[in-house]
Amino acid sequence: NPCIYYDEYTDCSLEVRFLGCNHSTPRMFCKATCLCDTEIK
């Protein structure tokens, strides 16, 4: 299934790894990485 969200940054996996999804930047710009665990991004 496709993810309804998309990542606005190209390095979201790195951002999320270091800052986590609770930080404002990844939460705002990396929604697919944070919210879609099993869906296709």
TrEMBL record:
Q: Which InterPro entries match?
A: Crisp-like_dom (IPR042076), Cysteine_rich_secretory (IPR013871), ShKT_dom (IPR003582)
| Name of the protein | Cysteine-rich secretory protein 1
The cross-references to SUPFAM superfamilies, in alphabetical order and at most eight, read: Crisp domain-like
**Disulfide bridge positions per record:** 12-30, 21-34
Q: Which keywords does the record carry?
A: Disulfide bond
- Has the keyword Disulfide bond been applied to this entry? yes
Question: Domain ShKT: where?
Answer: 3-36
Q: Name one Pfam family in it.
A: Crisp
